[in-house]
Write a structure and sequence with these properties.
With 766 residues, this protein is α/β, with parallel strands linked by helices. 31% of the residues lie in helices and 22% in strands. The strands form seven sheets. It has a seven-stranded parallel beta sheet, sandwiched between helices. A six-stranded parallel beta sheet has the order 16-26-25-17-24-23, sandwiched between helices. It has a five-stranded antiparallel beta sheet with strand order 2-1-4-3-5. The two termini are 50 Å apart.
Length: 766
């Protein structure tokens, strides 16, 4: 028997091995194995069991890793598709679907000593009062960890060993699972009553799942022309998968309750569910809601969590809970889309428009698109939820690929917040320097403090000042490795690069030896400066800042949000991690410091991102009994993205934005592949990029609709001492283009120090 194995080496090919007699019947597709390779031994995954091999003198497998197959045939199929579509070697795709903690040769279970009371015949041996108390503690719990008993009973291991010698206790090693939420007590909750919009959405979703409900509406098959950047549109020859829903519900409309009850239906059908959230920061609150709903009752199941902030041990144990079928609900960030849930009934992608679903390293997959492909392969239903859908998903609705479910009003008929746009140009005329808070926002914060209500202030830029410059000689502190100015962090007294993490001590005077001006000036602002300004304006207020500088430990996020929820914080300042998915009924005011910060980036999606961010941040206000109010401060107050966000008008924004995209043939009306070449020698990188362009121009007959732009220096021209050049390709034939690009990369000869990467459907053009 023969096993075809993909090794954990960047070789881009598979290798055949003999299955020795002692492993016959134990090796299957997806089994992890150890094999000889040249003069060493490496790990790999069995991807096929062919009847024969074209290669003579095959070497045998050394051993099997783990007790069961790690990669199911369905996940293996998904990894193959991902490698082909996103132009990456199969071994990279396979590594992605298995967490690193699971791929190790040695099993990562933690063993711990447990104490258990033994039954005693008759009166038993004579015990001291202290020993009797210990036995009683153990009997009440039946079994407990040794370390916990030592603390609870205030005793020693020697005392317990004596009781073991008397035949009253047994102390044995057992596997002790690491549960990231094991210490939390989460009270159970019951299903809530739907309003009419929620009921309609739920019935449509469950009908597609094969549950009771309305008959799904027939949806016409889409045209075969390219209609967006979703990877699944070309999958399997463009076959149409009808069970993809875009749940467009305003902030606070009760989308999560629809998710919870749809998952309950999936569990009733004997299937599992995956819930993707866009950022790790959203997971704690989401997990609590799901654990509370499914911790008891007839549908009780374990809820597993998968994200990068877990320890390696926690990730190992959570993954195995899913693989063994004990956890049937999985919640996590983008990598949770590969969770080994089997059978899979439902995938929910919350805040589907979020760009953090796109991975920035190979394979550069988009979790939303992978979710749709996986659901199609496993005959599952996908629900894409958002208050501000991506242009791509809404375009797929317009073309008939997805079904639209709308929830245009808030649950319990609470009003949407009033949004006021403040023209900061007018404010700047009456103040020295660049203003941070307008008089209107200051007054609104005062009134909330008087009424004991809470305020969120949002600025998507951390640090104290964005640059340090000398007004006399013009010196600007720039990163020595990147084409960026350094950001000043006052609390740390450091200048830092937010790209390569370079840092240096902030100077007290101009570093230019010919100047040495002590009046060096800090320009721009970040969340640290906003926090300092608020402290001066509102000395009695309890103010906290929430950004990646303040969240150093795993528990910091949960602790700060817990304090905010219980009213221990009056003003919370933060970056985009406070913008989405959080529910605080006492927040009645949201202030957006500079709404147009992301509006003028060199990216065709700048307007879309600004609209989404403003709408999401505004949605944090007015979720309780008091109507919310939002102040949007902007220097370009009449930009369409800001004005449509002010009116909560997604359809109006979509219509004007799609016209702009159509004129320039940008997604979702085409698809993009972005080639990045980088290296330490600028001339070599430039020459290599020109050579790649010349090779691609030969394909003009194959891709008559292709638009080739570049090569040109990337907007971020140098990072980590490497010069960067972009080539952008636009076409509607992305699957075919991916194949051609993979062939080109495999045969391309570039200077040794020049690297090339391909990003299919990129979201970051910097």
């Amino acid at each position: 028997m023969i096993a075809r194995v993909t090794l954990e080496l960047a070789l881009g090919k598979e290798f055949d091995y003999l299955i020795p007699d002692e492993l016959a019947g134990l090796v299957e597709v997806g089994t992890r194995v150890k094999v000889p390779f040249a003069r060493r031994q490496v790990l790999g995954c069995v991807t096929a069991l062919p009847e024969s091999s074209p290669h003579p003198n095959l070497r045998p497998l050394i051993k099997i890793i783990g007790r069961q197959s790690f990669v199911s045939p369905k996940i293996l199929q998904l990894a193959r598709w991902m490698g082909e579509y996103y132009c990456c070697p199969p071994e990279i795709a396979l590594k992605t679907v298995l967490p690193e903690a699971v791929r190790k040769e040695k099993e990562g279970w933690r063993e711990q000593l447990f104490v258990r009371a033994l039954p005693v015949d008759g009166a038993g041996p004579k015990l001291s009062k202290r020993q009797a108390q210990i036995i009683e503690i153990v009997r009440q719990r039946e079994e407990m960890p040794l370390q916990e008993l030592l603390q609870t009973a205030d005793t020693t291991a020697q005392t317990l060993r004596r009781l073991e010698d008397k035949g009253l206790l047994t102390i044995t090693p057992q596997i002790s699972e690491r549960d990231p939420y094991g210490r939390e007590v989460i009270p159970s909750t019951q299903s809530l009553t739907f309003n009419a919009d929620q009921q309609r959405a739920f019935e449509e979703i469950t009908a597609a799942m094969g549950g009771t409900g309305v008959t799904p509406k027939p949806v016409p098959a889409p045209s075969t022309e390219g209609i967006g950047r979703d990877a699944q549109s070309r999958q399997a020859g463009g076959l149409f998968h009808p069970a993809v829903f875009l749940l467009h519900g305003v902030t606070g409309s009760g989308k999560t309750e629809v998710y919870l009850q749809a998952i309950a239906r999936s569990l009733q059908q004997g299937k599992g569910a995956i819930v993707l959230v866009p950022e790790i920061s959203l997971t704690p609150q989401t997990v609590e809601r799901f654990k509370a709903r499914f911790s008891s009752g007839p549908l009780q199941t374990l809820v597993a969590v998968l994200h990068s902030h877990l320890s390696a041990g926690e990730r190992h144990d959570e993954w195995h809970k899913i693989r063994q079928g004990r956890a049937r609900i999985v919640i996590g960030a983008r990598s949770a889309v590969f969770a080994p849930v089997d059978p899979l009934g439902l995938i929910i992608v919350d805040e589907e428009h979020e760009h953090s679903y796109k991975q920035e390293e190979a394979p550069r997959y988009h979790a939303r698109d992978v979710a749709v492909v996986r659901a199609r392969m496993e005959n599952a239903v996908v629900v894409l939820g958002s208050a501000t859908p991506s242009m791509e998903s809404f375009c797929n609705v317009q073309k008939g690929k997805y079904r639209l479910l709308e929830m245009p009003i808030r649950a319990d008929h609470k009003k949407m917040p009033i949004v006021r746009v403040i023209d900061m140009r007018q404010v700047a005329r009456h103040e020295k320097g660049t203003p941070i808070l307008s008089p209107q926002l200051k007054e609104a914060i005062h009134s909330r403090l008087d009424r004991k209500e809470q305020t969120l202030l949002f600025l998507n830029r951390r640090g104290f000042a964005t640059s340090l410059q000398c007004p006399l000689c013009g010196y600007v502190a720039v990163c020595p490795n990147c084409s960026l100015s350094l950001t000043y962090h006052r609390q740390a007294g450091k200048l830092r690069c937010h790209i390569c993490a370079h840092e240096e001590v902030a100077p007290a005077a101009c570093p230019n030896p010919k100047c040495r001006n002590p009046a060096i000036r800090y320009a721009g602002l970040g969340t640290e400066k906003v926090e300092a300004t608020l402290g001066k304006l509102f000395p009695q207020a309890r103010i906290r800042r929430m950004d990646s500088d303040t969240l150093k430990r795993k528990e910091d996020y949960r602790r700060i949000l817990g304090d905010f929820r219980t009213g221990k914080i009056d003003l919370l300042v933060g970056t985009q991690m406070i913008a989405k998915g959080l529910h605080f009924p006492n927040v009645t005011l949201v202030g957006i410091i500079y709404a147009d910060l992301s509006l003028h980036m060199p990216d065709f999606r700048a307007g879309e991102r600004t609209f989404q961010l403003l709408t999401q941040v505004a949605g944090r206000a007015g979720r309780g009994d008091v109507e919310g109010e939002v102040f949007v401060q902007a220097f370009t107050p009449f930009h369409p993205a800001i004005q449509y966000a002010r009116r909560h008008d997604f359809n109006g924004f979509y219509e004007q934005e799609i016209d702009f995209r159509r004129q320039l043939n940008y997604p979702p009306l085409s698809r993009i592949a972005l080639l990045l070449l980088k290296g330490r020698n600028e001339e070599k990188v430039k020459f290599s990029a020109a050579h790649v362009k010349h090779e691609i121009e030969k394909w003009s007959g194959t891709f008559p609709d292709m638009i080739l732009a570049g090569p040109a220096p990337a907007p971020l021209a140098r990072t980590e001492n490497k010069y960067r050049f972009h080539i952008m390709l636009r076409t509607r034939q992305m699957t075919l283009l991916s194949q051609k690009l993979a062939e080109l990369i495999a045969t391309l000869t570039l200077p040794e120090e020049v690297a090339i990467t391909v990003d299919v459907d990129p979201v970051n053009l910097m």
